[in-house]
Write a structure and sequence with these properties.
Blueprint: E1 2-6, H1 20-34, E2 38-42, E3 52-54, H2 69-81, E4 89-92, H3 99-102, E5 109-113, H4 122-127, E6 134-136, E7 148-151, E8 170-174, H5 183-193, E9 196-200, H6 206-213, E10 221-225, H7 229-238, E11 241-244, H8 254-261, E12 266-269, H9 274-277, E13 284-287, H10 290-297, H11 305-316, H12 318-332
Parallel strand pairs: 1-2, 1-4, 2-3, 4-5, 5-6, 6-7, 8-9, 8-11, 9-10, 11-12, 12-13
Helix pairs in contact: 1-12, 5-10, 8-11
Length: 335
C-alpha cells in the first residue's frame, strides 16, 4: 500500500514548538512507516520523516512571514493532487481545501477533520459527503450535516512523555496565549489557590498578552515562552496539575493528553471534548468555572498519577491511532 500523508505548511512537520495538525500528521506518517507502509509525507522542506518527503517550500509560512500563505497552500495541495495516481490512498490533514480536488482524481481521500474554524466552511465538507471519508478527532466535534466514517483520537508517541510520580508544587498552563484557551482564568485559579503558575506557549494574541497577562506576571505567575518537545515532558511531568480553563468547545486538546501521559492530572472547564479525554475524579476534574477549579485543587491528592498515565496510554498513543487509521484505509480500499 502506498499512502500520501498531507500535512499543513504553516509549521514544520513535526513542529518545533507549536503545530498540532502538523504533529498529528507526523505521528501518522511515522507510525505507518513503522508498520512497513510506503509513505510519502507532503510537508515543508525542513520536515523530518523516516518516509519519503515531498515539498514546495523550504519552511512554513508562519516561520517565514515573507511567504504568502494562500500561494503556498495552493502549490502544496496541487503538488500532491497532480501525483494522486502514484498512491493507493491520500490522508488529508489539511482541512477542506484538498477536498475540492477529490472529485477529479481516482485515488480515495480520507480526511481527518481537526476542528471547524467557522461554520462557514461546512458547505465544502457537505459537498463531498459521499466521497469524503471523514474522521472526527472526538465525538463532541461533529457536525450533524456531515457523514463520518469513524472517530479516531489524536495519538502521541508515548516514549516522548516520561512518567513522574513526584511532582513539584506548581500549576501549569500549557497552550497558545489566547482568550479561547483561558490564560487569564488560569492566573485567577492560581492566585485564588495560592499556587505558583507557570505559563508556556506561543503568544497568539499579542494585545491579550500585553493587556491581560503581562501586568500580572511576578515570581508567582511566570511566563516561560514557547516550550518545544525538549522541554515539554519535564514541564508537564513536574506540574501538580495542568490548568485547561478553555472558553470554547475544543475539538481535542493535545496538551491534556500530553499531561496525562506524564501522570499529571488535568483541571479543565467542562466543554467540547474534555469529557472524552478526562475521567472525572480519576485523571483530573471537569469543572464549571474558576471557583470549582480552586475547590478541585484541594482534591488533587485523591488522583493517582499512574491512573492518568495508564488511561492516556490506552486511549491516546500514536500506535493506537495509526492502527485505527490503517483499519480505515483497508475498509475504504476493500482489503
Amino acid at each position: 500500500m502506498k499512502v500520501a500523508v498531507l500535512s499543513p505548511v504553516a509549521w514544520r512537520t513535526p513542529p518545533r514548538h507549536y503545530g498540532p495538525w502538523e504533529q498529528v500528521a507526523s505521528n501518522i506518517a511515522e507510525g505507518l512507516v513503522k508498520l512497513g507502509i510506503d509513505v510519502t509525507l507532503f510537508a515543508t522542506g525542513d520536515s523530518l520523516t523516516a518516509g519519503k518527503l515531498s515539498s514546495i517550500c523550504d519552511t512554513g509560512y508562519e516561520e517565514d512571514r515573507s511567504q504568502d500563505a494562500k500561494v503556498l497552500e495552493c502549490l502544496h495541495i496541487s503538488n500532491l493532487m497532480e501525483r494522486a495516481g502514484d498512491f493507493d490512498i491520500i490522508h488529508n490533514n489539511f482541512d477542506f481545501l484538498p477536498l475540492t480536488y477529490s472529485g477529479l482524481i481516482k485515488t480515495p481521500v480520507i480526511t481527518t477533520i481537526h476542528g471547524f474554524s467557522s461554520p462557514r466552511i461546512i458547505p465544502v465538507y457537505k459537498k463531498y459527503n459521499s466521497i469524503g471519508n471523514y474522521v472526527s478527532i472526538s465525538n463532541a466535534d461533529r457536525s450533524a450535516e456531515l457523514t463520518y466514517l469513524a472517530t479516531v483520537y489524536n495519538g502521541l508517541d508515548v516514549k516522548n512523555f516520561e512518567f513522574n510520580d513526584n511532582p513539584d508544587d506548581y500549576l501549569l498552563f500549557f497552550g497558545r496565549i489566547h482568550p479561547d484557551k483561558g490564560t487569564t482564568e488560569a492566573i485567577e485559579i492560581a492566585k485564588k489557590s495560592k499556587k505558583k503558575l507557570l505559563i508556556a506557549g506561543i503568544i497568539q494574541d499579542e494585545n491579550y498578552f500585553n493587556e491581560k497577562i503581562a501586568p500580572q506576571l511576578n515570581p508567582q505567575i511566570e511566563y516561560m515562552g514557547p516550550a518545544g518537545p525538549e522541554k515539554r515532558s519535564g514541564l508537564l511531568g513536574k506540574a501538580l496539575a495542568l490548568l485547561h480553563p478553555i472558553n470554547f468547545n475544543e475539538p481535542f486538546g493535545m496538551s491534556v493528553a500530553e499531561a496525562m501521559l506524564c501522570g499529571t492530572p488535568v483541571l479543565a472547564f467542562n466543554r467540547g471534548s474534555m469529557p472524552e479525554l478526562i475521567k472525572h475524579g480519576e485523571t483530573g476534574f471537569l469543572v464549571a468555572g474558576v471557583g470549582e477549579a480552586v475547590e478541585a485543587i484541594e482534591h488533587l491528592n485523591t488522583i493517582e498519577r499512574k491512573s492518568c498515565r495508564d488511561w492516556a496510554v490506552s486511549q491516546f498513543s500514536s500506535d493506537k491511532m495509526v492502527n485505527d487509521y490503517f483499519k480505515l484505509y483497508k475498509q475504504i480500499l476493500n482489503l
